[in-house]
Amino acid sequence: MHQEILANTGEVSTAVLMPSSSSVAAGRDPDALARDTEARMTDDERFSMLYSLMVRVFGTSAREPRVPADVPAVAGYVKGVPRLGIPPLKLADASLGLRHTDGPDDCATALPAGLAIGATFNPSLARTIGNLIGKEARARDFNVALGGGINLVRDVRNGRNFEYISEDPLLSGLIGAEIVSGTQEEGVIAVLKHVSLNASETNKFFLDAIIDPAAHRESDLLAFQIAIEKSQPGALMGAYNLVNGAYACGNRAILQETIKDAMGFKGWVMSDWLAVYGWEFALSGLDQHAGAQLDKQEWFNGPLRQAYEQGKVPKERISDMVRRMLRSYYAIGIDQQRAAAPVDFAAHNAVALQAAREGIVLLKNEGQALPLAAGRQRIAIIGGYAQTGVLSGDGSSQVMPTSGYAAQVPLRSHPLLGTTVMRLFGSSPLAALRKQLPEAIIEFDCGAHIADAVAMAKRADIVVMFAYRHEAERFDSPDMTLPFGQDALIEAVANENRNLIVVLQTGNPVAMPWRDKARAIVQAWFPGQLGAQAIAEVLTGKINPSGRLPISFPFDVGQTPHPTLPGSDVELGTPIKVHYHEGAEVGYRWFAKTGRQPLFGFGHGLSYATFAYRDLEVVDAESLTVAFTVTNTGARQGDDVPQVYLTDAAGDWRMRLLGFERVSLRPGESARVRITADPRLLACFQSELGCWRMEAGQYRIALGRSAQDLELSIELCLEEREFGR
Ligand code: BGC
């Protein structure tokens, strides 16, 4: 059977500033409404909107007295102006579901890690995830969802990578856009964060990220640009670090000149919490001071007002800040809210399950060790709290799942940075595997003693080891090892029983020194509240794995641009400069540039089916459209994610993901896939001219299974082009 699929994944609309769907639906002009309302406001009212208050005083259980008592302990509260129908803002963290706030019943659907969502390569699933976040926010009367972390993964030790989407601007931009659109469709303002270059957690408040501005536009800022254009988020959030000498939240070159002036962003820019150092940040493009009482001063409250009264801040700038906020309120319709429908948690469970299923990546499967056969066999399950639940990452993205935590294990405790707690979501992979394999004799050992684990492995037909590494905001990992001696445990078990399958729950790549001894390796990330079921289904073949790596897995940090973790060699609080000398050549681009082979490349992921590619052709050179056919040559239904890359640009080496498509095919079925590339991915940014430029010449475009595994390629002759934005 032949199926025509018109894939738009690589295409970025040139009509970049279309109003969001909710404003179209409401038939309103948000700019005119914002202008009109702002003109009728008093200065007191204007200034009351320019800062948010954290509801709970940081690090204590005390509440901020200025916040009304009925507001739950969300990250931020902004006063409304009732006489003008301006609602108060309740800003809730929502990266991987709604963050728990106060009460025992404030649980929410806990989604898989951002990297798992990135690994789905499925923008339409990301939209559904956005809808889920929007619905759960609305049901709790929160009108701003602080999700949308799309910082590019530049360092595989970053403790917060699990929350982000990928190392690639196109993939991060497209997935981020769909989450934003899905959330905003539900009438909740969505945020993209953190602009920009918050690439590691260590010493991040004192880290000056030095980067060539053109390379910045071609990498991290391009991810934001793609997402802004496609989804029109109501707000952006700045980062903690400095960029090229100026704090990100007060960085005129980024906020005003790039995001607002060049990219045409119409919403408002809020700071991160504890990231503002003066009222002057308002002159650089920051519109709102978030969690204002945490900083040395409530800069956009008293000090900005004073500066304004002394004539140091133009009235027009204050009006602009307010109008930008109001525009988002009206565009997304938070001023017109009806009673929210009760949340259908069963339906949301199904979304969390689907995301986990599609995000799990089968890294290795020697001799078809997986799927596990049904039948009477002895299986040893070892380690990784598999008897209890699955891991989640800690920090502002932590969600309490609808069934509550299965366990909480305190880990780090730092005098300034606080504590981290490893929280497990039930049910357990052990129970899920027993359910999927009712005839098997399944034993479990927690892996505390190598001798016990080895003894159990000896009497088993198959060993499934669960390995984990907890990750958290504010902390990076020092290297790529597994903690608590798990590498040695796996090695010892592997030496006893070669029929070994390893399931990794980590928020980053790990080195896997035992990789040659394991027959199969499964990357499950932090798989969310239905993760155990998804893992068991993938291991037993009920679900055919289809995730693809959204980040490159290096052999070791020596292969990456920064072998030493930035900030790890100084006291916390020491100002440091980190030269992102790799520029735009992040992740797979860096591997291509240096000619190194990673352990597993960006885009890699195996299936229980096989897929063949043929007939790659240029459909239309002008619109940069190519097409190819993908066929399922295996014996079972499966999803594939063919990827199109640029490898050469007019004689210059250049590696860029241009597009991808998730295709679902039955055995023998084919699909013709069409990918239209964003011209910016074939161009270089010219900082002096503020435009993109494609040189005339031959361009090579390749089709592959990963950035490391390109199969077909084709040449394209292009004329010189120069274009804005
Ligand atoms: C994080 C943000 C988060 C904010 C509010 C900060 O520490 O960096 O991503 O939205 O806290 O909780």
Description:
This protein is of the alpha/beta class and 725 residues long. The chain has three domains: 2-332, TIM Barrel (Alpha-Beta Barrel); 360-543, Glycoside hydrolase family 3 C-terminal domain (Rossmann fold); 609-723, Immunoglobulin-like, CATH 2.60.40. Helix content is 24%, strand content 24%. The chain has 17 helices and 32 strands. The strands form eight sheets. Strands 2-3-4-5-7-10 form a six-stranded mixed sheet. Strands 11-19-18-17-12-16 form a six-stranded mixed sheet, with helices on both faces. Helix 14 packs parallel to helix 15 (486-496). The protein is globular. The two termini are 42 Å apart. Beta-D-glucopyranose binds next to loops.
Q: Quick recap of the structure?
A:
It is an enzyme of class 3 (hydrolase). The protein is an alpha/beta fold.
- SS strand fraction: 15-25%
Provide the list of bound ligands, each named once.
Answer: beta-D-glucopyranose
Largest sheet: 6 strands, mixed
Point out poorly predicted stretches.
1-25
> What's the architecture of the largest domain, going by CATH?
Alpha-Beta Barrel
N/C terminus separation: 42 Å
Specify the CATH class of the largest domain: Alpha Beta
The CATH topology assignment of the largest domain is TIM Barrel
Shape: globular
Provide a count of the helices: 17
Structural class: alpha/beta
Please identify which CATH superfamily of the largest domain we are dealing with: Glycoside hydrolase, family 3, N-terminal domain
